[in-house]
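From: lab user (bench 3)
To: helpdesk
Subject: output format question, protein + 6-O-phosphono-beta-D-fructofuranose

Hello, I'm new to running complex predictions and I'm not sure whether the block I got back is the full result or only part of it. Here's what I submitted:
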Amino acid sequence: ASERPTQSGAAPILVASNRGPVSFRTEDDGTLSLRRGGGGLVSGLSAIDDPNAVWVCAALSDADRAAARQAPEGRLDRAGHDVGGQAVRMLDIDPETFARAYNGVANSTLWFVHHLLYDIPTKPAFDAGFRTEWAAYRAYNTAFAEALAAEAAPGAAVLVQDYHLSLVPALLRALRPDLRIGHFSHTPWAPPEYYRLLPDDVAAEVLEGILGADRAAFLTRRWALAFADCCEAVLGASVDRDALTVTLPQPSAGGAPIGRTTRLGVHGLGADGEFLRERAHRPDVDERLAALREAVGDRRTVVRVDRTELSKNIVRGLLAYRHLLRTRPEWLDRVVHIAFAYPSRTDLAEYREYTAEVQRLAAEINAEFATADWQPLILHVDDDFPRSLAAYRLADVALVNPVRDGMNLVAKEVPVVSDRGCALVLSREAGAHEELADDAITVNPFDVVATADALARALAMPPADRADRTERLAAAATALPPQQWFLDQLNAL
Ligand code: F6P
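Helpdesk reply: Thanks, we reran it on our side. This is the complete output you should expect:
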């Protein structure tokens, strides 16, 4: 980005994220149809009743790029699309640059670092190809910074989201020093000894990029402190762990101003209880619930719903279920494991291989235990939101065992939706564990035998205890609903 100040726009509040609130599909007749996205950020922003607010996101597909090109000045609202409330500016970044930034850097590198996913003896190896990807990541972040600078009114508040956009705060500050800039990390943050796997200049640039914000916020205190630890170890920053501030004491590699202080914040995104309770009782959910009931009969259920994501630890979860069936014959024909693992990041070989491994293991478990009228495991690897809600309603036990997770909203959603109360087996490495530990059954996600023990305890939990715990879990899970989560960040900025 150039240092030349950019002319202001009219938006007093802006959100920036890779994935936006809408996406497009090309229909058979060539027309573009619009789909609205879900998630905390979308419902969070709906709390803002300002017609001038703008959401800047990337075009993720050819259909998105076509829609972005048709929109006057790139603003989808003006193209006649009903994007509901806020204006959306979808950036038409060239597909190669986008793929390198999104797949190469964001999802294969930063995501792997923060979730501790590398198979260390061989990976990572930052070769010349990575340098091309890193240049693309910079270009992609620069495109966001320039679009935000052009849209923002003087003194506007800009909320930049996640690891895709870690360079944006510093780039944007250089263009528009008048803005109030926040960054929010939806992931965990790696401890310094792991974070330093990154090339030194990349490690520094990512931290300095985020420190370009006035405020850098996280889902838990643990991740905020890990970020501060990295700033101290990599940049020599001074950290006040009580006040939660990070100050750069000297000119650093990226030339960040001396003495600038960034405040850290913690906002534990909660489930949208009101939306979920209403949505989970619509006819499409009832229909799927009836089908699941038919398959399960009067047996107990262990339910899990995830993206097919390496960090979600689906394979060890299946191994734990198999261990339970092998070692506790009293549960044979009395339990069904419902596992929904919907497709995610399928451009990456690791994710395709992981999906295949999940399917292979699931088939093995069914082959080992199934009888003429009992299917011990129901696995679906396609996406169906109403079916997920139906499974939540039917859950006796929810299994949420990520190796590491920023928050994990499934752990917060199941207790809200469950019909009869449901025991929660929860990894201590999920951000949600900070808030739900008292009433969950905690597991070390790497310990398959301990996870099987936890499933057995959960299955045998007395109904009254289960109902009490579920009530407290649901209250804790909805303590900070998305709208308030969003407003809190804005007010703190
Ligand atoms: O926290 C990371 C995150 O961006 C979540 O907000 C979201 O659920 C998930 O990753 C989806 O990833 P992608 O946009 O790559 O499908």
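A quick orientation on your result: The chain has a mean pLDDT of 94. Let us know if anything else is unclear.
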